[in-house]
């Protein structure tokens, strides 16, 4: 056993949580009383700090390296659902049951972990949009990785690492934590809306820092268990041991009497400690979230005619070995009009000169980029022509396009597998903005111009379908604006504006559906789904009834939400969105069981829909539908009972 601080096994942590021990207690062994606990005191703190500092301080300072920057990070919605009880710091989730099933001492796990206190959302506008924060969310909290993560076997850890490397968002949330968003209902309950994982990105959340951390404010956070083990390998390599998320405008208490409270982060931030919370380290730092996100890569914009010809350049005046002034190549030598220093040689290529940046698409509702089927997409196209000459155009087109992107996989004669992405247009509407005389060329004068547009989204159109993994197909929509030039040698001016389309489901009767079956051991399983239609962001409720006259051992009952994707020419797929074990049914051996269960439908999944091409088209339809699969796992060979029930998922808000 080493002298360093060791983490408690998960089963002990479960027991501590079950006893409702507060986090300001210290557990230790007394030779007369055995294992005891008492409330945290300065004497205990000073003793432990003295013992730990002797062991840790020398190696920490020598091997640690400073954390110089953080982010930017993108945030992406996941299928993870968590349960947070008001007033508690522990969350529960069943989303990781399958992932954590390889734990040494547990076959079924209800994951537990710690979260930061709930706080109001402070980001607005663009910062809120690029962070994928639900529009109706009012509160959020940072969720740390589950307690059981550190006790996983190496095989499971490697599996998680591989899935994270492949971009699996649920495993990223499991391994590193993430943000969870809520709204308050009329009963002041917090309703979970979405869980977002942090991913590496060139845009998204930006952090100010590093800022020096004031160690006097560490104890206040440590007593409430806010500091957690670092799980990111790049931070561990720097020597960082613990981290903590600070809420927006959170006031921290100082351990120094008389020192005022401190609110270090307006929009929240992260604190990183190189030693234990009781041992300050000179490299301890914190980073705060900036108000404005990075929405695109920052680059230096070089406008047209940024180069000026330098006719006075001579061989003697140049430090490089240039050809004689009489050479024709001198005609292609220019000075940069931005720095007015370097002489460069360039080849001039005709271009639009950044004219696409002068095209602006303004939708009728400000900042609206989400539209429902069965509705209109309306707005104005604005263009500022600042050139001295009139622009010669054939026409101006604006087109609303829907595309299906899918991987085409095939093998050649050598059995070498090839994958390429194909983009198939399944929907297109085009408008010509030259309303005065659409059949002839025209001249566009200098000045500001505005043209209205109006598209209709058919009721049958499929919704935007996001790409989840590398091989996944996806559906996307965009508006393409094209200024078609009259001169063949001049490139057309194009601009693309992406939009999100949501599917307005037709009203469906919320009828009850049920299924039942008996196996050869006379075990009768009866499933009842009270409403076969459910909106995302709500709980689906179902009843299980078991008749077990011979009292056969039922190991468990599992429920799976299966998504079936039939996306045109793409390979048909089944994706298991949720897979949970109904804990009350574990190792059941009674003669009868009748109980109600429910689980949460994530907001991130697409609704049930079906899109068919016109009758004469040979293209395959685009369909997404769902089923609930129930399986009773019994002892013995070929004794399991499997049932399926159809489930219609909509995007409509509805009462649960």
Automatic annotation (TrEMBL):
<dbReference type="InterPro" id="IPR011022">
    <property type="entry name" value="Arrestin_C-like"/>
</dbReference>
<dbReference type="GO" id="GO:0005737">
    <property type="term" value="C:cytoplasm"/>
</dbReference>
<dbReference type="InterPro" id="IPR011021">
    <property type="entry name" value="Arrestin-like_N"/>
</dbReference>
<comment type="similarity">
    <text>Belongs to the arrestin family.</text>
</comment>
<protein>
    <recommendedName>
        <fullName>Arrestin C-terminal-like domain-containing protein</fullName>
    </recommendedName>
</protein>
<feature type="domain" description="Arrestin C-terminal-like">
    <location>
        <begin position="519"/>
        <end position="654"/>
    </location>
</feature>
<dbReference type="InterPro" id="IPR050357">
    <property type="entry name" value="Arrestin_domain-protein"/>
</dbReference>
<dbReference type="InterPro" id="IPR014756">
    <property type="entry name" value="Ig_E-set"/>
</dbReference>
<dbReference type="GO" id="GO:0015031">
    <property type="term" value="P:protein transport"/>
</dbReference>
<dbReference type="Pfam" id="PF02752">
    <property type="entry name" value="Arrestin_C"/>
</dbReference>
<dbReference type="InterPro" id="IPR014752">
    <property type="entry name" value="Arrestin-like_C"/>
</dbReference>
<dbReference type="Pfam" id="PF00339">
    <property type="entry name" value="Arrestin_N"/>
</dbReference>
């Amino acid at each position: 056993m080493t002298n360093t601080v060791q983490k408690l096994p998960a089963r002990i942590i479960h027991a501590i949580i079950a006893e409702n021990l507060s986090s300001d207690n210290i557990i230790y062994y007394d030779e007369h009383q055995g294992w005891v606990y008492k409330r945290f005191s300065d004497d205990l703190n000073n003793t432990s700090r003295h013992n730990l500092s002797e062991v840790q301080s020398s190696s920490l300072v020598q091997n640690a390296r400073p954390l110089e920057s953080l982010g930017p990070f993108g945030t992406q919605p996941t299928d993870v659902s968590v349960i947070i009880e008001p007033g508690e710091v522990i969350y529960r989730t069943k989303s990781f049951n399958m992932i954590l099933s390889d734990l040494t001492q547990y076959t079924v796990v209800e994951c537990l972990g710690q979260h930061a206190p709930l706080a109001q959302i402070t980001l607005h506008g663009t910062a809120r949009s690029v962070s994928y924060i639900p529009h109706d969310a009012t509160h959020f909290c940072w969720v740390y990785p589950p307690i059981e993560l550190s006790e996983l076997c190496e095989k499971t850890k490697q599996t998680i690492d591989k899935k994270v490397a492949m971009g699996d968002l649920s495993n990223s949330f499991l391994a590193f934590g993430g943000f969870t968003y809520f709204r308050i209902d009329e009963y002041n309950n917090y309703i979970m809306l979405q869980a977002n994982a942090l991913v590496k990105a060139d845009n998204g959340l930006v952090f100010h820092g590093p800022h020096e951390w004031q160690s006097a404010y560490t104890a206040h956070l440590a007593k409430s268990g806010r500091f957690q083990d670092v799980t990111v390998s790049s931070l561990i390599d720097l020597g960082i041991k613990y981290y903590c998320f600070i809420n927006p405008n959170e006031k921290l208490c100082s351990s120094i009497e008389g020192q005022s409270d401190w609110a270090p982060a307006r929009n929240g931030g992260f604190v990183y400690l190189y030693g234990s919370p009781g041992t300050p380290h000179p490299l301890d730092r914190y980073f705060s979230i900036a108000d404005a996100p990075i929405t695109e890569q920052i680059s230096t914009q070089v406008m047209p005619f940024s180069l000026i010809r330098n006719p006075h350049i001579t061989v003697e005046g140049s430090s490089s070995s240039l050809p004689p002034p009489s050479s024709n190549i001198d005609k292609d030598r220019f000075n940069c009009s931005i720095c007015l220093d370097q002489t460069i040689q360039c080849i001039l290529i005709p271009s639009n000169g950044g004219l696409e940046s002068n095209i602006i698409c303004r939708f009728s509702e400000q900042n609206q980029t989400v539209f429902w089927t069965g509705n209109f997409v309306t707005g104005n196209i604005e263009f500022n022509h600042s050139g001295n000459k009139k622009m010669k155009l054939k026409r101006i087109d604006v087109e609303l396009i829907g595309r299906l992107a899918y991987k085409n996989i095939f093998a050649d004669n050598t059995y070498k597998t090839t994958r390429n992405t194909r983009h198939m247009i399944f929907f297109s509407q085009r408008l010509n903005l030259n309303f005065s005389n659409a059949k002839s060329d025209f001249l566009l004068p200098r000045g500001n111009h505005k043209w209205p547009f109006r598209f209709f989204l058919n009721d049958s159109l499929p919704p935007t379908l996001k790409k989840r993994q590398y091989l996944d197909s996806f559906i996307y929509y965009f508006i393409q604006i094209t200024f078609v030039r009259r001169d063949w040698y001049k490139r057309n001016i194009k601009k693309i504006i992406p939009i999100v389309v949501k599917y307005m489901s037709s009203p469906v009767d919320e009828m009850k559906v049920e299924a039942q079956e008996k196996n050869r051991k006379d075990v009768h399983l009866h499933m009842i789904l009270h409403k076969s239609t459910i909106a995302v962001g709500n709980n689906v409720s179902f009843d299980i009834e078991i008749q077990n006259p011979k009292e056969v051992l039922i190991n468990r009952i599992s429920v799976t939400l299966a998504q079936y994707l039939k996306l045109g020419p793409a390979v048909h797929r089944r994706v298991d969105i949720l897979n949970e074990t109904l804990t009350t049914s574990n190792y059941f051996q009674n003669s009868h069981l009748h109980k109600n269960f429910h689980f949460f439908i994530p907001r991130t999944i697409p609704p049930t829909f079906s899109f068919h091409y016109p009758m004469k088209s040979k293209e395959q339809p685009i369909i997404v539908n769902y089923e609930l699969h129930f399986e009773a796992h019994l002892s013995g060979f070929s004794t399991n009972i499997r049932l399926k029930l159809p489930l219609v998922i909509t995007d409509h808000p509805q009462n649960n």
